[in-house]
Amino acid sequence: MTLPIIAYGDPVLRKVGDNIDKEYPNLKELISNMWETMYNASGVGLAAPQIGLPIRLFLVDTTPFSDDEELSKEEQDQLNGFKRVFINAQIEEESGEEWPFNEGCLSIPDVREDVQRKERIKITYLGREF
Question: C-alpha 26: how far from its chain's center?
């Protein structure tokens, strides 16, 4: 089921999300609906707050980036099929030089902006099976 995407300005987008556990109600269905919602909106990532849930859950599928001809074959291969669910993710470390990446956000349709990101990020998280 495609879920409504919350627009920029909604307070849920600024709230620190709550951790969840494997007993979170209908979690598998929620994740399935989030994938459907993200793909329907032509996105590559979606966070639970973007569908109105103040929980620490997001998902990413970088496959669309694997067609970028400016990337090396190795980089394209890394991006192709990278599809993950991140539960209770925490940034442990960011390192390297900052570089700009032109990004969009499903909660702010039709707006793109260069965002500065570090070259590497180390996070801890739980997958969909905990």
Answer: 20
